[in-house]
Amino acid sequence: MTGLQDRLTPAQVEEFGREMDAIRQRVVAGLGKEDVDYIQNVIKTQRGLEVLGRGLMYVPPAWPLAVAALSVSKILDNMEIGHNVMHGQYDWTRDPALSSQRFEWDNVAPGENWRHSHNYIHHTYTNIVDKDRDVGYGILRIDPAQKWHPYYLGNPVYAFFLAFMFEWGVMLHDLEFDRIVRGERKWSEFKEVRARMVRKAARQVGKDYVLFPLLTGPFAPMTFAGNLTANVVRNVWAFSVIFCGHFPADVESFSEEETEDESRGQWYLRQILGSANITGGRLFHIMSGNLSHQIEHHLFPDIPARRYPQIAGEVRAICEKYGLPYNTGPLHKQLFSVAKKLVKFALPDSTRPRRTEPTTLEPELDAA
User: Which residue of 32, 140, 143, 148 has the fewest CB atoms within a 10 Å radius of its CB?
Assistant: First the structure.
């Protein structure tokens, strides 16, 4: 953990917050037809790929193409459409099909559960240990402030299986098993959460592993395998993008004490320090749901994600102005640093949280 209050003077923090607010206000004021056209085109592309993939399942020699089309369709639905629409990024359109409260994505995690654990818990308490449940997802030790236990020796193994079953991990995350085991919550408290999980999982399993395979008749085993493969591809991709945005080297965590009575400027500052970006081309950003701009997403979670590349340069320039880090790098670099942390914090010699004093910086800014 790093001392959050040591980064900037109170006056600088407030000025920093005003500059971030100004970016937000300008982007929101400019939202319009281009943003609607963009998301509608992505939805059309996603649906077209799904139809193509389902259709090619009837042509056994085209099985690899069917799986590829279906995999991309599921990635777009999960990342660029589902995640972003359910964040409320298009609520301003008043289009029921783009309503954050009505939208349901193509995976086993119920939208209603996810909106609470992700939109509210994670984005309110980003990287606050013991508040943000996305720090380790209740499964992994990814930060030195998490007390070591022999269970964590399996860190790399747990992460490997979580990657392949990520949608199921996201779903089960809402049951808070770790807190139930510690006696902090009761199983009975999650009755409605469990009911939503069972309904959604039943629909997804029935669709991908019963209905669509049966519809292809003698090709049912290949269709079953194709749907399973597409889901795994989507899971591994989503895991990689999300972990690279939250857990690579130099991403910081915070204590509840240092974030008490947090101002708007301090909240923005925490988002900068607790996030990381992934560099890449336009297609890469689309396939990541623009979560390759995780810093901008944490700053402005309800702004359409297509806007993040447009403001990334400005956000980075402001960080440089205040002497703040702007954590970014290619996918392989960020993913490798995540892997190293998973191994490092699996071991008992990493048990003690160590606060590192930030380098004294002298940003060229009039604090007044």
Answer: 32
Neighbours of 17 (CB within 10 A): 17
Answer whether residue 59 is part of any domain.
Answer: no
**Rounded Cα–Cα distance for residues 311 and 323 (Å):** 18
- Determine the pLDDT at residue 368: 33
Whether residue 270 lies inside any domain: the answer is yes
The domain total for the chain is: 1
Q: What are the tokens at 46? A: 């996603």
For the segment 134-147, the average pLDDT, to the nearest whole number, is 89
Cα 223 to Cα 63: distance, rounded to the nearest angstrom: 8
pLDDT mean over 108-130: 92
The residue range of the domain holding 247 is: 4-32+106-280+308-350
* pLDDT beyond 70 at 367: no
Give the orientation angle of helix 220-246 with respect to helix 331-344, to 10 degrees.
80
Residues 42-80 pLDDT 10s? 999 999 999 999 999 999 999 999 999 999 999 999 999
The residue-averaged pLDDT of 321-341 equals: 96
Structure tokens at 225: 């395998």
Rounded to whole angstroms, the Cα distance separating 140 from 146 reads: 9
Q: What is the mean pLDDT of residues 260-273?
A: 93
Q: Give the pLDDT mean for 240-249.
A: 95
For residues 306 and 313, is the Cβ–Cβ distance under 8 A?
no
Query: What is the per-residue pLDDT for 3?
Result: 56
Give this prediction's pTM.
0.90
What is residue 283's predicted lDDT score, i.e. its pLDDT?
96
- Beta carbons of 207 and 201 less than 8 angstroms apart: no
**Is 265 a member of any domain?**
yes
**65 part of a folded domain:** no
d(CA 265, CA 10): 9
User: First and final CA of the chain: distance in angstroms?
Assistant: 28
